[in-house]
Specification:
alpha/beta; six-stranded mixed sheet; binds magnesium ion; binds inosinic acid
Length: about 180
C-alpha cells in the first residue's frame, strides 16, 4: 500500500496529537450535555474510534451509513442513505463526525434530515479534514482537525475505490494509481 502513496500529508502521530487537542475542546463544550456522537460511515470509522475514546463524557454513539461517492475521486452530488432508521436523538445534542468536508453535500443532507425528522436540541459538525475550496453546500464545521488543499487524500478511514482506509496515516496517491 505504501508504494502507492506519493506523499504523506499527516503522519499517524500528527493525527493523534491533533485528536488530543480536539478532545480537550469537545470535552469542555459538551460537559453536562446529553451528547450523541453520530459517526458517518465508512469514512469516519478511524477518526470516530480514536476521538471518542478521548472523551471522558457520558455520551451515546450512533452510526449512519451513507454513500455519496461512486468509485472515483469526484463526488456524485447524490447522497444516498443506506439505512432507513435514524438514531433516537430527540432533545439531544448531536455531534456529526465525518472524515472530510469536501463539497459539503453529505453533511448538509444529513444535518437537514436530522434537524427535520429527529427534533434534536442541536446539531454540530466535527470533521477531521476540511478542503479549502468553494463548496456546493455551505456547511459550518464547528470542529476541524486540519484544513487541507483541494486534492484527493486517502488513509485513516478515507478510501479510493474502497481501498487504503487502513493506512494509519493520511497521504496523496501517485497519479498513476488514480485512474479516473
Ligand atoms: P462531500 O463532497 O463533502 O459530500 O464529501 C463526501 C464524502 O466524499 C466524504 O465523506 C468522503 O467520504 C469522500 N471524500 C471527499 N473528499 C475525499 C478525499 O479527498 N479522499 C477520500 N474521500 C473523499
Ligand atoms: Mg469515501
Amino acid at each position: 500500500m505504501d508504494d502507492d502513496v506519493a506523499r504523506t500529508l499527516f503522519h499517524a502521530s500528527t493525527i493523534q496529537a491533533r485528536l488530543d487537542e480536539m478532545a480537550q475542546i469537545l470535552t469542555a463544550d459538551y460537559e453536562g450535555k446529553d451528547l450523541t456522537a453520530l459517526a458517518i460511515l465508512n469514512g469516519s470509522m478511524m477518526f470516530a474510534a480514536d476521538l471518542l475514546r478521548r472523551l471522558p463524557l457520558q455520551l451515546q454513539v450512533a452510526c449512519l451509513s451513507v454513500a455519496s461517492y461512486h468509485g472515483g475521486t469526484e463526488s456524485s452530488g447524490v447522497v444516498q442513505f443506506l439505512q432507513s432508521a435514524l438514531p433516537e436523538v430527540k432533545g439531544r445534542h448531536v455531534l456529526l463526525l465525518d472524515d472530510i468536508l469536501d463539497s459539503g453535500r453529505t453533511l448538509f443532507a444529513i444535518r437537514e434530515k436530522i434537524l427535520r425528522e429527529c427534533a434534536p436540541a442541536a446539531v454540530n459538525v466535527c470533521v477531521l479534514l476540511r478542503k479549502r475550496k468553494e463548496r456546493a453546500e455551505d456547511v459550518p464545521a464547528d470542529y476541524v482537525g486540519f484544513d487541507i488543499d483541494d486534492e484527493f487524500v486517502v488513509g485513516y478511514g478515507l478510501d479510493y475505490r474502497e481501498k487504503y482506509r487502513n493506512l494509519p496515516y493520511l497521504g496523496v496517491l501517485k497519479p498513476e494509481i488514480v485512474v479516473s
